[in-house]
Design brief:
The protein is mainly β and about 120 residues long. It has strands at about 1-5, 10, 20-25, 30-40, 45-50, 55-60, 65-70, 75-80, 90-100, 105-110, 115. The strands form 2 sheets. Strands 2, 4, 5, 6, 9, 10 and 11 form a 7-stranded mixed β-sheet that branches. The chain has a 4-stranded antiparallel β-sheet with strand order 1-3-8-7, with no helix packed on it. A hairpin with a 6-residue loop joins strand 4 (about 30-40) and strand 5 (about 45-50).
Length: about 120
Amino acid sequence: QVQLVESGGGLVQPGGSLRLSCAASGSIFSINAMGWYRQAPGKQRELVALITSGGGTNYADSVNGRFTISRGNAKNTVYLEMKSLRPEDTAVYYCYARTVVGISATAYWGQGTQVTVSS
């Protein structure tokens, strides 16, 4: 089992910046990827950014060049630096972790943190 706790959401004006943090606890040794998804009202949850245990990253086209995902030194923390925020970035952002044990993969989710971009 993995527990994820997010922090850092809030209200920001268009063009502003925010930094989200997510700390994992529990069976962190089996995590092979962490990342962020978001869900806006009336829309499906979508991938924002992902980072693997090897350091590889993947971004949604809509945030590429504006958002940066990184890991803490202890590797059980993931950050999302968001710059040049737009109103369409408004959503609940969920931390995600994937564990792999043998051939079994499991997804874990945080409780979500609201990001609102508005003037």
